[in-house]
Amino acid sequence: MFRIGKKLVAIVLVFLMLMIVITSCNTNEETNYSAKEIAGLILDLYQDEELPEFAKYYSKVGEDSENYLEPKQAGQLITGNYEEIAEMEEISEYAFIIPTGHHAFEISVLKTKDVQNIDTAKQLLEKRLEQKNDPNIRLYTPDAVPLIENAEIHVKNDFAILLATTDNDKGKKMFDDILAGKVSLLETETPNIIVEKYSRNDMYLIGGSCEDGSVITVTGGAREIVSNSDYGYFLVEVPILQGNNTLTLTAKVDGKDASEKLEYEVSPQEGINIFEDKAELATIVGADYQNVFYGNVPYFTGENLLNDTQINDIKELIQNRFSKLKDSGLKDTEIIYMIAPSPMNIYSELMPPEYNQNTENNLLKQFSKAATEAGAVVLDLTDVMMENKNGEYKIYHKTDSHWTDYGALLGYNKLMEHIGKKFPAAKPRPVTDFNVYNKEMYLGDIFVMLELETNSLRETSSFVDLNFEAPGVSDTIYTGENLCPNHDVNGYSHSTGNDKIKDLPTAYIIRDSYGGVIYPYLTDRFSWADWGAWRDFANPLNLYDIEIKNPDYIIYIISERNIENILYQQDN
Q1: Predicted model pTM
Q2: Which residue in 118, 190, 207, 247 has the fewest CB atoms around it within 10 Å?
Q3: What confidence tier does 2 reach under pLDDT thresholds 50, 70, 90?
Q4: Which pLDDT score is estimated for 136?
Q5: Of 313, 315, 304, 401, which is closest to residue 362 (Cα–Cα)?
Q6: Are 555 and 338 in contact (CB under 8 A)?
Q7: 9 vs 228, which has greater pLDDT?
Q8: Mean confidence (pLDDT) of the chain
Q9: CA atoms of 345 and 319, how far apart (whole Å)
Q10: At the topology level of CATH, where does 192-272 sit?
Q11: CA angle, corner 347, sides to 346 and 353, nearest 5?
């Protein structure tokens, strides 16, 4: 027992020694903080003071940057001689924040490649301090002399810092707190502004690229704008007040400090008619990069609600249509209205506050109830879109007015689940037959209506590749990297069919532009399908043609904002 006890004690001692070594290693471990970040946070402590204009030089910037310090200039800065300094090879990062004129305020930070060489960094800053003792400062700005006389150099871990400030103690405390992990050092990248223009007389657009995950905040206008970026892009529309407005934009990633502030001096204009000229196709800029056409507004606010007489007229029209079909021998033909809700109704929380949603009723609900009571089938996709609105894959593009490939796939599943109850062979294909992915593309038609260049901003949206051969599908509806669908690809009047699967139904399909995206999924689900041209959805229904073709289904595939165009559709 005694021997076992000694072994146990020995094991514990070895374990404790290992822990001491590990702890020691962790304590002396080089930090991941950058010299630029440290210098910037310390400088922020003095922003309320009257500071001189600064030149800011940072390592790891391009030679075309205003912050680039040419090696020989670094030598002149440190030793006074325009030549490269061999000791700078020991420095992994640097940040020099120095006055551009005869002033003494300075914050300079050096980070060594190896903590063992920290004395080299200290010596370089000592030489820099000697250069600061410039006779011109004593002659022209004597008030700055105490900054030189009281300047301090501090060393900790792999950093050396020179402080020539009005209060070195608070600068040193910040330096110590940073390296002790008590201060957030990570600063959100400053956005790259690409769009800067008036969208209306009293509206100002600012957009561009930013660090992924940034929240964009703009103050100084008629109201504060807060908007999440989307895969590193953003666009905000800021209402402005009468007179001069100083707009301030910042970006902030969770866990990091806000970016550098960007300022814009703006005031109301005259003659900016981008919004007015586009009418229903004018762009409403929402939060989180979510944008919609103005034509969606009545469906959102309830401005186009029907009265009882109009509702009865719709019922009568659909009932008469069924009677005509039965008189023609098509008593089993089913009429299906599949309607994709407006993204404005799905993402209501992202819309500007001047648009108030009618949550009690809207035209889609009224039409669905009336058409169902008249004997038609209405597949209102609102619920399925709400269930998937914040998933991994977008259901609507944010810069284009159409649903995504994935949103259309959700509609396909809903439609074919219904039809598959009567025709099992037509049930939706398994999910393994569809490859869903995200891809960055150029902006879509909504942003085009803001008169933006198609290659100015981008959007990462959701697309689907087929893992099967779809009859009648020869090309993608997208052209190159353009997010705007090319409706000419399959938008003409024609037929498709699948003769390889038995017991498939037949369909007569009426569609708007949403039909172009869902088209590839449907062509093999029918033994034949007659596709009307995508712009013909509001034209009179050709009952004579339908009688000849005798389809199992008459299927409408439309977006919510086209309901008004089919309300009183006549029959030929």
Answers
A1: 0.72
A2: 190
A3: very low
A4: 72
A5: 304
A6: yes
A7: 228
A8: 91
A9: 29
A10: Immunoglobulin-like (2.60.40)
A11: 130
